[in-house]
Design goal:
The complex is a heterodimer of chains A (113) and B (112). Chain A contains no helices and 11 strands. Chain A has strands at residues 4-5, 10-14, 19-25, 32-38, 45-51, 56-59, 62-67, 72-77, 86-93, 102-103, 107-112. In chain A, strands 2, 4, 5, 9, 10 and 11 form a 6-stranded mixed β-sheet that branches. Chain B has no helices and 11 strands. In chain B, strands 2, 4, 5, 6, 9, 10 and 11 form a 7-stranded mixed β-sheet that branches. Chain B is globular. The A-B interface holds A 2, 4, 6, 9, 32, 34, 41-46, 49, 89, 91, 93, 95, 98-106 and B 4, 33, 35, 40-45, 48, 50, 58, 90, 92, 97-106.
Chain lengths: 113, 112
């Protein structure tokens, strides 16, 4: 039973437009959420995170929104650039469980120029 | 600053062979992790070590063993490889409790 779900395997967006990647979770104990980005033949790299006490966190072109009641978070990339083309993993952790990260299956983002 | 280094990057094994994946980090991190990545499954935790001298099972530990040799090094061993262990393996480390893992570049393992 996947506790973190990314239901869209892929997303294609035009350069300059907004990319919205979605993530749902089932475990209400999760209190910290992260997004990782992965290029082919490389390890995932940290992108942005949000604590459960917040509903929004922004870092440049990247904004993460958290809706705790819906157990849903999303990553917005504005404007999208071709270099953003990668696999994006949503991850969650719970301080109760020693902060081990649980990852979603990933969403492949393609930004077309 | 190399970060997290994994070796080998590629390996092909026959069913029943054994091998060890090596991981070393130079960031003085306390905790280290081994994940495997499979299509449609994301990253799944195999084993982790919260600190030097301790190891614990993750979500998918069967068929694997680990050794936390010292603070820097955390190895993953397959005693008798099976085709189901064909995957990309990632080692990661973290200093504190923020959840921001630093990953190695991955080791692609194929078991025939």
């Amino acid at each position: 039973d996947q506790q973190v779900k990314q239901n869209s395997p892929s997303l294609s967006v035009q350069e300059g437009r907004i990319s919205i990647l979605n993530c749902d979770y089932t475990n209400s104990m999760f209190d910290y959420f992260l997004w990782y980005k992965k290029y082919p033949a490389e390890g995932p790299t940290f992108l942005i995170s949000i604590s459960s006490i917040k509903d929004k966190n922004e870092d440049g072109r990247f904004t993460v929104f958290l809706n705790k009641s819906a157990k849903h978070l999303s990553l917005h990339i504005v404007p999208s650039q071709p270099g953003d083309s990668a696999v994006y993993f949503c991850a969650a952790s719970a301080s109760e469980y020693g902060n081990k990260l649980v990852f979603g299956a990933g969403t492949i983002l393609r930004v077309k120029s | 600053n190399a970060g997290v280094t994994q070796t080998p990057k590629f390996q092909v094994l026959k069913t029943g062979q054994s091998m060890t994946l090596q991981c070393a980090q130079d960031m003085n991190h306390n905790s280290m992790y081994w994940y495997r990545q499979d299509p449609g499954m994301g990253l799944r935790l195999i084993y982790y070590s919260a600190s030097e001298g301790t190891t614990d099972k993750g979500e998918v530990p069967n068929g694997y063993n680990v050794s936390r040799l010292n603070k820097r090094e955390f190895s993953l061993r397959l005693e008798s490889a099976a085709p189901s262990q064909t995957s990309v393996y990632f080692c990661a480390s973290i200093q504190g409790i923020t959840g921001e893992l630093f990953f190695g570049e991955g080791s692609r393992l194929t078991v025939l």
